[in-house]
Amino acid sequence: MDHCKTCRKPLIIDIDPEENDELDVASRSETIPPTRSITVPDDVGLNYAYNLTICPNCAQDISSHTAASLEQIICSINNEGGLQHEVDILPLLKEESYLKAFPEERKSRAFLEFCAEGDIGAILDLVNGDSDVSDDEYGGEEEMQVGETNGQEGILTRIDPLRYQDPTNNMTSGLHVAISNNQEETVWLLLLLASTLEPNMFPPDVQQAAETLGAKREDQRNMVDIRTLRNSDGRTGNDLAAEIGGVWNNWIEKQRLRP
């Protein structure tokens, strides 16, 4: 069981066994009434993490800092993947904390992960609403956000994963993420689905693959071209590709990423 490095008390948490399927069956007790909570070590999963860097017992900061002065929380994790030592869980805690505050963004953030991995099938399933992942995992109701529509503030508008920008990661979009990870096929797909790049700019094999996968371009009039999206540094996908070079040199030369 993990202990706080300051007060040395065990890190535990009370949970409801009836509401947490991730709890190990061995941790359940037939003698405990279903209406009562039970106490377990806080290593059964990051879903039960305490308030980021603060110990729940002594309220002291349990974080440390790297040589570059970056905050971290180094600990051992024991979950379904086995026991792992010296793991910095702070990025995961921040992610989970953000998603608890904004559960409606789960699907869009999953979209960014698919772009990074180059998972074309998952991207299309998510965009087309055919994903096998349950709605509960992605926040339940259809994703909505407060935006500005027709000049009126406070209107609820649908969150578009294709044009979503991550406020916790430099306002990166799916295009930024795909370019950063050298996912050319993913970039082709994103340009097909969310840009005004002329059809004759798409190679025949890309068009054939898109047709096979059922990827269809909707009318892009009055839609934001993802090539115009800028991250917090003011850089577009084209700017990022020019900086990375390599596989993107040909893209820059042919101005495919320039709106």
Defining traits:
259 residues, alpha+beta, two-stranded antiparallel ribbon
The overall strand count is 8
Order of helices and strands: EEEEEEHHHEEHHHHH
Rg calculated over all Cα atoms: 22 Å
Oligomeric nature of the chains? single chain
What ranges have pLDDT less than 50 throughout 5 or more consecutive residues?
A: 13-17, 19-50, 133-157
Number of helices: 8
Helix-strand makeup class = alpha+beta
- Average pLDDT figure: 76
Portion in strands: 5-15%
Helix content: 25-40%
In words, what does this structure look like?
This protein has 259 residues and is α+β, with helices and mostly antiparallel strands. Helix content is 29%, strand content 15%. It has a two-stranded antiparallel sheet with strand order 1-2. It has a two-stranded antiparallel ribbon with strand order 3-4. Strands 5-6 form a two-stranded antiparallel ribbon. The protein is elongated. It starts with 11 loop residues before the first strand and ends in a 6-residue tail after the last helix. About 24% of the residues have low confidence.
Give the helices and strands, then pairings.
Elements: E1 12-15, E2 38-41, E3 64-65, E4 71-72, E5 74-79, E6 82-88, H1 90-101, H2 106-117, H3 120-128, E7 144-149, E8 152-158, H4 174-180, H5 184-194, H6 204-213, H7 237-244, H8 249-253
Antiparallel strand pairs: 1-2, 3-4, 5-6, 7-8
Helix pairs in contact: 2-3, 2-4, 4-5, 4-7
